[in-house]
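Sanity check

After download, print the first record. It should look like this:
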Amino acid sequence: MDISFDNVSYTYQPNTPLEHQALREVSFTIQSGSFVCIAGHTGSGKSTLVQLINGLLRPTEGKVKVGDFSLTSNKNHSVRDLRKNVGIVFQYPEHQLFEETVKEDILFGPRNFGVTVSDEQLHQVIEHVGLEPSILEKSPFEISGGQKRRVAIASVLVLEPKVLILDEPTAGLDPTGEQQIMKLFQRLHREKDMTIMMITHDMEHALNYANHMLVFEQGRLMLEGNPTNLFSNGDYLETIGLGLPEAIKLINEVKRLTGLNISYDRHSIEDIAVQLSNWAKAGGGQ
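Expected C-alpha cells:
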C-alpha cells in the first residue's frame, strides 16, 4: 500500500488556549514495500504522523492516502478496514497485555474485527516472532520481558497488516534483544514485502535497515530520502539531536585525515577497513 500525505497539517485542541499545531503542511509519498525511518526530536510530530496513517487521527487540513483509503477532516466514513490493514506496535507494547493467556491476548484484536483465526495461523504467527507454540497457553505475566514484546508484536501481525508502524520498537531492550527484534522486522520486510514505518532516535537502525528516511523538526518535514544520502547533512542532524551512525562518523574522519572518499553506501566496518587497506597498499598518503 502506497502512503501519501498531501499538504497535511494537524492541530490539537484547535480554538482553545491549549491549541498546538503538531504537523505543518507535510507532503511526501512512500512506495509500498518500503522500510522507512521516521526521525526527529521529541515533539517534532512523529507520533502524530503515524496516528494519521492508521486513522487514529484525521488531518486538520490536507489529505492522507493509504492505498485506496483517503482521510481528510471529514469524519463521515469508517476507518475500520484501514486499521485492519495498518498495524501499530506502540512503545513498550508489552504493557498492553492483559488477558489470562498469551493466546487470548493475540486473539483480542481479530475478535474486535470479526476475524476468525485458526490454531494453525496462531502457531505460524507465534513461530514467526521466534517463540514456541507452547507459550500460547501461558499467562503473559509469567514470561520474560523480551517474550512479552514478541507476543505484543504477534498480536498485531496476526491480522496480516500490509503496513506495520513501529514506535521506538527497541526501547528498553538489552543489545541482544534489540538486535533480535530488528532482525525480525527486517525479515518481515523481506519475506512479506511489508511496508514498515519505524519511529526511532537510533541512526544506526536507520542506516542498517531503512531504505527511506523522513526527518521532522517542529512539525515540518525537513529532510527526506535515502538514509545514506541524508547523512551528508550531518551538521544539521547534530543540531536537532540525532547525530550520525558510528560508521558514517568513521568515514568522515577517514576523509578528513587522508582525503580518501569512501561512499556512504559502503558503510560496514569491514568495507571501510578493506578500502583503507587498499589505499595504504597503493601508497596512499605518500
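If your output differs, re-run the checksum step. Summary of this record's structure: The chain has eleven helices and ten strands.
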